[in-house]
From TrEMBL:
Enzyme nomenclature, EC number: 6.3.4.13
Chain segments annotated as coiled-coil in the UniProt record: none
Pathway: Purine metabolism; IMP biosynthesis via de novo pathway; N(1)-(5-phospho-D-ribosyl)glycinamide from 5-phospho-alpha-D-ribose 1-diphosphate: step 2/2
Family: Belongs to the GARS family.
Required cofactor(s): Mn(2+); Mg(2+)
Organism: Paracoccus denitrificans (strain Pd 1222)
Protein name: Phosphoribosylamine--glycine ligase
Xref: Gene3D superfamilies: 3.40.50.20, ATP-grasp fold, A domain, ATP-grasp fold, B domain, Phosphoribosylglycinamide synthetase, C-terminal domain
Keywords: ATP-binding, Ligase, Nucleotide-binding, Purine biosynthesis
Enzyme class: ligase
Gene Ontology BP terms: 'de novo' IMP biosynthetic process; purine nucleobase biosynthetic process
UniProt key word Secreted: no
Length: 420
């Protein structure tokens, strides 16, 4: 079959790498893609937020399946438009993507289905929000309701910090996303991510992960999109995974179906685990980046069978074939990220790397210029290792990092510290 992946990050490179290995995949396209994917797929220059543009490309190239990587095309309704045109798509409808696009929508769904999460309230004006913060006290969490590119959340340790966050949001710091604010109870504990394929009615867990959001070693510095991740997450024991399926994921999927907006795609549950019990922090409606890199490294070629079954509504017949393995990925970012950084610096040493099913460097922000790979983004590469133990995966990932010659980049040296 012919497959089109939408997106250009490390997540999409990892999806392309896994899907390409499956003999069902005849031709593979990625739009817009990046330089790292060139050996695996044809890159297509296409406006991935435009349903008509994606549908036109699918018709010209006899595409059988579209795998949607990032949230923006989902929130724009590209999956709906594809399905309306009779093209198989992996990813939720615009209505179901609200589970990521609106924090208050998710909280309402949790309340309706009894899923455990932090107590919350919603505000559309600053004064009642300030009063609520004074009444509740700190620590407390302030969130812009809409999509704010991961920047709309303040975990406030003091009331003053929380009130400043409210004033920022209503002052327009997050644009439309901050026109409404959700204020939540602070949850203590350890965070982990749980990934579940859902076809609207059946659900199949496909792995757990933990990531490192802070820019620098020791989990210090500014928040980023993720500087590294590993899978599995030891804190998500089988008992806790069972609790999450029973109390959070299945009730959510049933509630979405009851509302007439069934969820199809990957549901990425951000969880807080305390005293052996998980509560929901948030949902994303897509794979995480860089969590996808470690999941794909572990799933390999079967990822396509699972994604296809999900898109076709056949998950009830599927099972994951698990290896007793671990994967770990280290993100190399441009110096300055997540703030301002230079683009265009050359990255050397990539061609000589040994790459196989135990070691892969996934590209996120790269392009090929005059035969050379150059950095074009903030997060640029994800050096990923797999092994029988987390320590082995860690050693393989850092061996890749150490073989890459890119003076303008940096990475954390302590990815996986909590589990190692
Ligand atoms: P979100 O975008 O909702 O995932 O929030 C970003 C990060 O803020 C999460 O990954 C948590 O680290 C933290 N966070 C969000 N909500 C809470 C909460 N209610 N209690 C504690 N930490 C939270
Ligand atoms: N790594 C976090 C995310 O993809 O949202």
């Amino acid at each position: 079959m012919n497959i089109l992946i939408l997106g250009s990050g490390g997540r999409e490179h990892a999806l392309a790498w896994a899907i390409r290995q499956n003999p069902k995949c005849d031709r593979l396209f990625v739009a817009p893609g990046n330089a790292g994917m060139e050996p695996l797929a044809r890159l297509a220059d296409l406006d991935i937020l435009s349903g008509p543009a994606v549908i036109g490309f699918c018709e010209e190239n006899a595409i059988d399946l579209v795998v949607i990587g990032p949230e923006a095309p989902l929130a724009a309704g590209v999956a709906d438009e594809l399905r309306a045109a009779g093209i198989l798509a992996f990813g939720p409808s615009r209505a179901a993507a609200m589970l990521e696009a609106s924090k208050s929508f998710t909280k309402e769904v949790c309340d309706a289905c009894g899923a455990p999460t932090a107590a919350w309230a919603r505000f559309d004006a600053a004064e009642p929000a300030r009063a609520y913060i004074r009444a509740q006290g700190a620590p407390i969490v302030v969130k812009a309701d809409g999509l704010a590119a991961g920047k709309g959340v303040t975990v406030a340790m003091t009331e003053a910090e929380a009130i400043a966050a409210v004033d920022d949001a209503f002052g327009g710091a997050f644009g439309e996303a901050g026109a409404e604010v959700v204020i939540e109870e602070f949850m203590a504990g350890e965070e982990a991510s749980f990934f579940v394929l859902c076809d609207g009615k059946d659900c199949l867990p496909i792995g757990t992960a933990q990531d490192h959001k802070r820019a620098f070693d020791g989990d210090t510095g500014p928040n980023t999109g993720g500087m590294g991740a590993y899978s599995p997450a030891p804190v998500l024991t089988q008992a806790i995974q069972d609790q999450v399926m029973e109390q959070i994921v299945r009730p959510t999927v049933a509630e979405m179906a009851r509302r007439g907006t069934p969820f199809q795609g990957v549901l990425y549950a951000g969880l807080m685990i305390e005293h052996g019990r998980a509560r929901l922090v948030e949902y994303n409606v897509r794979f995480g980046d860089p969590e996808c890199q470690v999941l794909m490294m572990r799933l390999g070629a079967q990822a396509l069978d699972l994604i296809l079954a999900c898109a076709e509504g056949r998950l009830g017949d599927m099972a994951v074939s698990w290896a007793q393995d671990h994967a770990l990925t280290v993100v190399l970012a441009a110096k300055g990220y997540p703030g301002a950084y230079e683009k265009g610096s050359a990255i050397r040493g990539l061609d000589a790397l040994p790459e196989d099913s135990f070691r892969m460097v996934f590209h996120a922000g790269t392009a090929r210029r005059d035969g050379q790979i150059v950095a074009t983004g903030g997060r640029v590469l994800a050096a990923t290792g797999r092994g029988a133990t987390l320590a082995e995966a860690h050693a393989r990932a850092y061996a890749l990092v150490d073989a890459i010659d890119w003076p303008e980049g940096f990475c954390r040296r302590d990815i996986g510290w909590r589990a190692l």
